[in-house]
Structure formats: C-alpha cells, structure tokens
Design a protein that fits this description.
By secondary structure, this protein is mainly α. The chain contains 10 helices and no strands.
Length: 192
C-alpha cells in the first residue's frame, strides 16, 4: 500500500471518527505492523485493517439501518442496538463500500476484532490484540498483554484478553457474546 492511499483513507476517516478514535486507529495500525513482523503475516494488510477497523464506531442509528438494509446485514440479537458489538460487523461492509477493500482477510479481521471467533487467522488475532494493546491503551494488565504479544505468545495473550473481557462483562452484569466464548475455548484447546 502506498502513502497516497493511506493519506486518502486517513482523510476519509477524519470525517467518520472523532480525533481521539482516529489516533487510536493509527496506533492500532502501527501496533499491528509490529505484531505482523513477529507472527509472519502481511504487514500491509495488518496496517490497513488496523487503520479502518473502527470506521463504523460512531455511526448513527440511521446510518446503521441504511447499511443493514443496503447489504442485508444480519445482526445477531446481541448486536442489534449495540454499536459496541455491531460496529465491527457493519464496518466489514463499510470498508468494502467506502474504501473499496475487497480482501477477505482484511474484511474478516475487521469483522471479528471485537468478539474474536473460533479458528482465527493470524491477521485476525493480530488486529484483535493490536486493538487491545496499542500504545494509547492504559488499563490494569495491559503491560502483561503487551509482554506476551511482543514475546511470541500471541495465543496466551488472546486467552488472557478474553478472560479479562469475560470477567469485566460478568462484573458489569452484561451478556457475553458467544463468539468470544467460542474463540477462548478454541484457543484453550489449541494450546494444550
């Protein structure tokens, strides 16, 4: 990907995201490149997926409804009226429509960056973790997740990340998305 494409994407993202979220997206893209060098996935795809992963984060209800209708997007019951979960699914269509990104690896990395899924690709894992540990993130345990991720233990970092998320969701009396449970359990079995 050349810098002209990147500049155009960032200009478009400026219209879609708040400045703090754009900075986060650029941080995720840069972190994804670092992780891709460790885990052997395509750096350009990692950068691009990181850059656009949150493109639908601030969609209005009308924008969500328009995309759902236009592309026949099926949101599961937990994603309906929940932009925290649905922005990744909707974003996987937005990147095709707005940025003309047709690469299935990038589309899936955007689609599953919030919940994960069983049998994730390396790129999907990289984007999920880059989103979690980019340099602007500051929460208890983030340094340990960075240590694992940059130390060649991506699956362990993902399992710990899912564990933390599931604990947080339970403590806040919220529903746990089944894809996250499946992703965690799959990784646990894979790591035995």
């Amino acid at each position: 990907m050349n810098s002209l494409d990147t500049e155009k994407i960032i200009e478009q993202l400026k219209k879609m995201l708040k400045p703090k979220r754009l900075k986060h997206s650029i941080n995720v893209a840069n972190c994804a490149v670092k992780l891709s060098e460790i885990y052997g996935c395509d750096k350009d795809k990692a950068y691009l997926a990181g850059l656009v992963h949150d493109c639908a984060k601030y969609f209005t209800k009308d924008e969500i409804e328009a995309y759902v209708k236009k592309y026949d997007i099926v949101l599961d019951p937990m994603e309906v009226d929940n932009i925290a979960l649905s922005h990744s699914v909707i974003g996987s269509y937005v990147i095709q429509d707005v940025f003309n990104i047709k690469d299935v690896d990038i589309i899936n990395a955007v689609r599953y960056h919030t919940t994960g899924r069983e049998n994730m690709t390396i790129l999907e894992k990289v984007i999920l973790m880059a989103d979690m540990i980019e340099e602007g993130r500051d929460f208890p345990g983030v340094d340990y997740l960075r240590e694992l991720s940059f130390g060649g233990q991506l699956n362990k970092a993902l399992i710990d990340s899912f564990n933390n998320t599931i604990k947080f969701v339970i403590e806040n009396d919220q529903l746990i998305h089944l894809r996250s449970i499946s992703a965690r359990n799959y990784l646990m079995q894979e790591n035995r």
